[in-house]
Amino acid sequence: MAFSISLFVLLMLLSLQCSSSLLSLNKGSSLSVEKHSEDVILSKNQMFCAGFVQLAQNAFSFGVWFNEPHTNNTNTLVWMANRQQPVNGKLSKLCLLNSGNLVLLDAAQITTWSSNTASHTQVTLLLHDDGNLVLRDSQGTILWQSFDSPTDTLLPGQPLTRFTQLVSSRSETNHSSGFYKLLFDDDNVLRLIYDGPYVSSQYWPVPWILIWQAGRFNYNSTRIAVLDSLGNFTSSDNYFFSTNDYGSVVPRRLKLDCDGNVRVYSRNDKSKQWYVSRQVIFDACSIHGICGANSTCDYDHERGRRCSCLPGYRVKNHSDWSYGCEPMFDLTCDGNESNSTFLKIQGVEFYGYDHNYVQNSTYMNCVNLCLRDCNCKGFQYRYDGDQGFSCYTKLELRNGRRSPSYNGTIYLRLPNGNSFSKVESVRVDDHVCSVMLHKDYVRKPANRFVRFSLWLATAVGALEMICFLMIWSFLIRTRQKSCADQQGYHLATVGFRKYSYRELEEATKGFSEEIGRGGGGVVYKGILSDQRHAAIKRLYEAKQGEGEFLAEVSIIGRLNHMNLIEMWGYCAEGKHRLLVYEYMENGSLAQKLSSNTLDWSKRYNIALGVARVLAYLHEECLEWILHCDIKPQNILLDASYEPKVADFGLSKLLNRNTLNKNSSFSMIRGTRGYMAPEWVYNLPITSKVDVYSYGIVLLEMITGKSPTTSVQSIDGENSHNERLVTWVREKTSGTYSPEYIIDPAIKTNYDEFKMALLAKVALKCVKEDKDARPSMSQVVEMLQSHESDPLKY
Ligand SMILES: *[C@@H]1O[C@H](CO)[C@@H](O)[C@H](O)[C@H]1NC(C)=O
Ligand SMILES: *[C@@H]1O[C@H](CO)[C@@H](O)[C@H](O)[C@H]1NC(C)=O
Ligand SMILES: *[C@@H]1O[C@H](CO)[C@@H](O)[C@H](O)[C@H]1NC(C)=O
Ligand SMILES: *[C@@H]1O[C@H](CO)[C@@H](O)[C@H](O)[C@H]1NC(C)=O
Ligand SMILES: *[C@@H]1O[C@H](CO)[C@@H](O)[C@H](O)[C@H]1NC(C)=O
Q1: Which ligand 5 atom sits nearest the alpha carbon of residue 587?
Q2: Higher-confidence residue: 656 or 729?
Q3: Is 550 within a domain?
Q4: How far apart are CA 20 and CA 14, in angstroms?
Q5: Which CATH number do you get for residue 687?
Q6: In which order are the strands placed within the sheet that holds 30-32?
Q7: What pTM was computed for the model?
Q8: Which domain-ending residue is among 582, 607, 637?
Q9: From CA 520, how far away is CA 646, in angstroms rounded?
Q10: Between 161 and 449, whose confidence is greater?
């Protein structure tokens, strides 16, 4: 018995490689499911197999997968004929009929799938080297091919067209169609759509921005997107990216995963492991439908993505969070307004389903608007800068996300008299579909063949580049016209474009007006051809290859936070590397501090805004980003003194596991006076270096004393900030009373409680021991915990 089980296991393992196999299937012949380990079609280069693959007990599918040795029972499936309807493990077969039709028959000999083809001549089914399963006749005409009906995966060279779409699988083990789709929409734009059982919505590009702001075109009706063999993805709507391992020819596949994100996986030739070389969405909770209605999504690096029910709600189906949460109360709506109350939840956002939107609304206005409407489930109340507070009343609570960096509040409508505490909200890991992210930068030296193909690709690429530039100059001209009348770009732009060096040279009048100088390069003022004012940073040296630079720049270009300076584009030509940012007329925090124009409440608001954006960078993006050069010069202010953090010249996208000063950071350091002790003592670099610098900036905002100029010293570079820290510690010992340390420019006109809180937080942030410092989201929570409001829970 034991022997037969181990034999079975052995057979199972063997079945995953194409051991004995055919090169093609001709008219009148068939593959049978019982012989699924032998009856497989192999591509000439032995890279792909086609055949029956076991999905579950007695459930098989006919598909194409990577031919690779396995130790665990998983195939890298890239295509399936019958994903919705697996066939029986007995008597099922794939037949190439004499009529020329390819059919998949179930045990009862019922047709489960067919190619719907017909031909009188000889017909052959074969698997091409690129993984395309092709049915062709004797003249070589292709009657049918698997590349025309993708499931959830695109292989290099396989185009996504107007006729095709990717549909995610339901879960990692259930391959039937799930809720996410990647497709070209009616307006020619490539989109990701959540198409759930009750609702559907677009979540990429983010729905609240215009197409051109996302860097896309909608006038190109070609509708074609393709990943090439070097790792470049291009789409006819101007969306593009390069993988992190761009340039090397390795096996790759682009997959719409069951969590709604699109990832490119590459295979390491040595370890034979797949790793994520690129993903399209950086902000895990911006994907719709994960947590269902009446719940919120939150993400952090340690715990991953989680769902939790709102207070007063309970989870509907513990094994599937997409069902959402249902109310534990019954809100009768009889026109009696006193039976409702509102629970304030800070830092929580619900997107969509707004019944009313009122700008510059008072809190009471918003409450009354919601009370008058039986279907109102609550309202979103958010400070929108110049426009005052905005009110959005909600018909449904969907696409909820919790984020300390979000600058708004939801007021949840609950029946009066019930006290729903936080305790009743259940938190469960999102186990329905979790995808582990790990990066692997191991690069093999290219062998001769690869070098030749690279050379070939470069030669072809150069030709393409010439065409590309010609098309570009045309597109830029047409684009200007269409954008000229849309100057209201106050909305967050997540798109960016490529600029030519000449264009930027003209914009800056030959790099004449210098406005700043940072670790990585010099910043110039420029006016772009569309009349927008820009800050253009010219990096000193092109140390990175173009692919690497592009991969990094496009990640930064897609970050989107109101307290982050916007990046509009870049230039990578020859040895030139430039970044194009929005220009902030009102200068930096450093200037405003030295000219004494900031009262205490502005300083507090700036502290909160900077903390929010750092929390976003550290904790909410799937890519882990450290700024590494937080200082008042890099905190710019807009007309309403909202802070915008700038200068990612020194930032680095990091893999949590390769955090090692020697590898990633040998070159990169912050600015004297703001640098954490880890730099000096050669300790591991973590997000706590930003926390430290942030703490020093807080101390500078409170005291008005700069850590770089306060005291001249001779004993090492860290002693300036140490002196400032020690001075503040001594003055505030025990009490945190701000009166002895406060910037004389503020005089006595300040909220003592809030300034004391600021000092307390600052001193926690500059603790010598990095583990004793709080995380940025804890800082946000501390700073907003005392915004006086009786409704807070
Ligand atoms: C897979 O998901 C589909 C759709 O939700 C469901 O009908 C089917 O029963 C599931 N199959 C398995 C094996 O769980
Ligand atoms: C809960 O979800 C699972 C998995 O999708 C499903 O099989 C089951 O029928 C659901 N239960 C209810 C009560 O909806
Ligand atoms: C969400 O809650 C509302 C009541 O506030 C309820 O009417 C609705 O059915 C809930 N949604 C789901 C999916 O249970
Ligand atoms: C907002 O409303 C207040 C009072 O209703 C008014 O004084 C103020 O000017 C308004 N602000 C804007 C930006 O409309
Ligand atoms: C900020 O910029 C606006 C617009 O350019 C200007 O009107 C305002 O005076 C500036 N404020 C400060 C404090 O520089």
Answers
A1: 14
A2: 729
A3: yes
A4: 10
A5: 1.10.510.10
A6: 30-32, 93-96, 102-105, 111-114
A7: 0.69
A8: 582
A9: 13
A10: 161
Counted domains in the chain:
5
Output DSSP code: residue 387: G
Of 227-236, 253-262, 519-528, 663-672, the range with the lowest mean pLDDT is 663-672
**pLDDT band for position 486 (cuts 50, 70, 90):** very low
For residue 787, the model assigns a pLDDT of 56
Nearest 5°: phi and psi at 117?
Answer: -115, 160
Q: Length of the chain in residues, anyone?
A: 793
Q: What is the residue range of 137's domain?
A: 17-149
Q: 332 CA distance to ligand 5 centroid (A)?
A: 51
Least confident range of 216-220, 481-485, 643-647:
481-485
Only one residue has tokens 């599918």, namely 61
Sequence-distant (6+) residues with CB within 8 A of 467 are none
704 and 626 in one domain?
A: yes
Q: CB–CB of 392/379 below 8 Å? A: yes
Q: Is residue 107 part of a domain?
A: yes
552 and 661 belong to one structural domain: no
- Claim to verify: residue 118 and residue 205 sit in the same structural domain: no
Query: 245, 629, 690, 743: which one is catalytic?
Result: 629
Count Cα atoms within 13 angstroms, Cβ side, for 37: 10
- The reported pLDDT for the residue numbered 493 is 34
Helix (H, G, I), strand (E, B) or coil at 462: helix
Sign of CA dihedral 366, 372, 373, 376: positive
Atom 7 in ligand 5: which residue has the minimum CA distance? 639
Same domain, 130 and 197: no
Instruction: Give the tens place of pLDDT for each residue, 265-300.
Output: 999 877 788 888 888 888 788 888 888 899 998 877
Distance 134 CA to ligand 5 centre (A): 65
> Which amino acid appears at position 781 of this protein?
E
Q: Are residues 160 and 82 in the same domain?
A: no
Question: Do 578 and 598 have their domain in common?
Answer: no
Q: What is the pLDDT of residue 227?
A: 97
**Lowest-pLDDT range, 235-239, 540-544, 555-559?**
540-544
Q: Based on the fold, state whether residues 310 and 186 are members of the same structural domain.
A: no
For the residues 206-210, what does the mean pLDDT come to?
A: 82
| Residues having CB within 6 Å of any atom of ligand 3 | 293-294, 316, 324, 326-327, 377
* Under 8 Å between Cβ of 241 and 523: no
The CA distances from residue 713 to 323, 663, 667, 670, 673, in Å, are 63, 31, 25, 19, 12
Are residue 634 and residue 747 in the same domain, yes or no? yes
Supply the CATH number for residue 32's domain.
2.90.10.10
Q: Give phi and psi for 711, each to the nearest 5.
A: -135, 135
253, 271 contact by CB (below 8 A): no
Distance in Å from the first CA to the final CA of the chain: 62
Structural domain includes residue 238:
yes
Residue 523 Cα to ligand 5 middle (Å): 21
| DSSP β-ladder status, 123-127 and 533-539 | unpaired
Nearest ligand 2 atom to alpha carbon 318: 1
What is the average pLDDT value for the chain, to the nearest integer?
78
Q: Which structure tokens are listed for 528?
A: 């772009």
User: What pLDDT, on a 0 to 100 scale, did the predictor assign at position 519?
Assistant: 59
Domain boundary among 394, 423, 452: 423
Pocket of ligand 2 (CB under 6 A): 317, 319-320
Contact 416, 340 (CB under 8 A): yes
Give 389-411 pLDDT, tens digit per residue. Answer: 899 999 999 989 888 778 889 99
The closest of 30, 26, 33 to 135, measured between CA atoms, is 26
CA distance 375 to 368: 13
pLDDT band at 526 (very low <50, low <70, confident <90, very high): very high
In a domain, 456, yes or no: no
Q: Is 629 a catalytic residue?
A: yes
Best residue among 57, 82, 85, 174 to mutate for probing ligand 1, ranked by most atoms within 8 Å of CB: 174
Tell the burial category of 456 from Cβ atoms under 10 Å away from its Cβ (0-12, 13-18, 19+).
Answer: exposed
**Burial of 782 per CB tally in 10 Å (0-12, 13-18, 19+):** middle
